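Methods: example folding runs. The two proteins below were folded one after another, and each record is reproduced exactly as written to the output file, sequence line first and structure-token line second.
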Amino acid sequence: MEQQIMKDERSLGDLFSELASETGTLVRQEVALAQTELTRTATKAGKNVGYLVIGGAVAYAALLAFIAALILALSYMIPAWTAALLVGIVVAIAAVIVITSALNALKNTNLAPRQTVETIKEDAKWLKDQVS
């Protein structure tokens, strides 16, 4: 009860000072949260890019073997240079499709720290309510 009376007796300056202090702490915590969220997102993306590179290298080796086999098979029916040219054109078209798809997917990737943005909005609303 005595503590409640002491809280009621604080001056307006003390209340604003406490509000400023708590707001500063809140902002520091939000920045720390954003940093943690961005670090976690970057780490996850980095690992996935590494796996993508390794998978791409293995797939590339397999693709080269299949292309060589296809060219050799076609060379029994048409001249070898024509077989190589036709297979090269098909592979180039496939590459354009894959690259275009990957670029579109990267453009749609959202790297913003959504959780932090939401909590900052909530904090701003809370602060506005406290000042009002």
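Second run, written to the same file directly after the first:
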Amino acid sequence: MKTKQLALLTITVFLTCYSFCQPSILSLKEIEKNFIKVNDNLYAYKYETSNELYNLFLSKQTGSDINLLKVDSANWRLPKYSNEPYAQYYHLHPALANYPVVNISYEAAVEFCKWLTECYNNYSDRKYKKVEIRLPSSEEWNMLLSKIESKASKKQTDNNVRPVDKYKNTGKFFNVLENVKEMTNTKGHAKGGDFENGINPSDFDYKYKEASLPFVGFRFFIDIVEK
């Protein structure tokens, strides 16, 4: 118990040394550099979607639907987690900007993908004429897994969420099996391992009824519609 309290105190002190995160400018060229080929015209983003990138999306949203897109930080207060510093700071603090966005709904992830698709397809200096950015099917996520599973990382041995570029896999990807489970295009279905449950192949197909969870995020895939 003392160890847990000390860890929470350390996080609190660390976070209070920074001001709250302000969304950065969207760098589509940088995002495009991290499109990694999976199969034929299908690419996947090199990293899990970060707090910083999701915050930028939120900063561009208006209207009554914005409440459906927000992060449910109260999930960090559930008895299983009891992490008040994360409930207050995880989503907004610059110290955690490069951590995976979690506690968002399936619908929110879908809307993020639509927004990023529109941003990219209107970007004058883009490499591809037209793309569709979206959540992957279970089969497509398995294609991604096949790129890295021969040397699957077993590095995550603690129960702490880490930055999106923490665990390097083969094929230039990061955190495919580690850190957070990744949503598919089926609501309530995620793939992979996570900081809470570890890397357990029998748990890679994860079904849940909750609207959002602290150990579920997403990685977007990219269809090259027109080169």
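Comment on the second run: The first strand starts at residue 35 and ends at 39.
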